[in-house]
């Protein structure tokens, strides 16, 4: 592969990785609202936290494949530097496969986020557990909180 083709492939890989960074999953933190949440009424209940446990939110959305493609391009370019002729071709193919696998793993891992499982006892005696993305708020056992339930039935825990 001539140097100008390598440079073009590398530029494409960098652009792909940049696009991937903009495709992060929306926040599920109790302190972050989407545009469609604004000016919508929510049912409010008060409760006391029973326990808080750190968990992880796994990126359940199907991957866009950008990480796989970017990894394959970078791996293919890097592999093409191995040998000449058939050696460069084999290096490109192997580099693309390994790079694609690595890019896919990085894309999936990048979507996982720290979260909290917050178990509360409502003032009317029910026990509920709510999982939400960890944010700036601090939650502790014994703390009084509000449970905000939107029209879709989604609940968030908010400090009182």
Outline the fold blueprint.
Layout: H1 3-21, E1 43-57, H2 66-79, H3 86-111, E2 113-122, E3 127-133, E4 144-149, E5 155-159
Antiparallel strand pairs: 1-2, 1-4, 2-3, 4-5
The residue-averaged pLDDT reads 78
Low-confidence runs:
17-22
- Tell me the strand percentage band: 25-35%
Q: Number of helical runs?
A: 3
Secondary structure class reads alpha+beta
Main sheet?
A: 5 strands, antiparallel
Q: Report helical residue fraction.
A: 25-40%
The radius of gyration is 23 Å
Q: For the terminal residues, how far apart are their CA atoms?
A: 63 Å
The number of domains is 2
Shape: elongated
Count of extended strands: 5
The neighbouring-strand order within the major sheet is 3-2-1-4-5
SSE string, helices as H and strands as E: HEHHEEEE
What can you tell me about this protein's structure?
With 160 residues, the protein is of the alpha+beta class. It folds into 2 domains: 1-26 and 59-111, no CATH class; 31-58 and 113-160, OB fold (Dihydrolipoamide Acetyltransferase, E2P), CATH 2.40.50. It is built from 3 helices and 5 strands. The protein has a 5-stranded antiparallel beta sheet with strand order 3-2-1-4-5, with no helix packed on it. A hairpin with a 4-residue loop joins strand 2 and strand 3. Helix 1 (3-21) packs antiparallel against helix 2 and helix 2 runs antiparallel to helix 3 (86-111). The longest helix has 26 residues, at 86-111. Residues 17-22 have low confidence and may be disordered.
């Amino acid at each position: 592969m001539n140097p100008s083709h390598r440079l073009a492939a590398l530029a494409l890989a960098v652009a792909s990785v940049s696009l991937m960074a903009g495709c992060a999953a929306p926040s599920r933190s109790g302190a972050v609202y989407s545009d469609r949440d604004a000016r919508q009424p929510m049912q409010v209940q008060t409760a006391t936290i029973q326990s808080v446990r750190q968990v992880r939110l796994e990126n359940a959305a199907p991957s866009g494949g950008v990480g796989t493609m970017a990894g394959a391009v970078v791996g293919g370019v890097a592999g093409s530097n191995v040998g000449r002729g058939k050696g460069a071709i084999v290096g490109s193919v192997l580099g693309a496969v390994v790079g694609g696998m690595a890019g896919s793993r990085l894309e999936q891992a990048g979507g996982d986020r720290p979260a909290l499982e917050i178990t509360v006892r409502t003032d009317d005696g029910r026990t509920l557990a709510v999982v939400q993305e960890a944010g700036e708020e601090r939650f502790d056992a014994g703390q009084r909180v509000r449970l905000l339930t939107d029209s879709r039935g989604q609940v968030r825990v908010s400090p009182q």
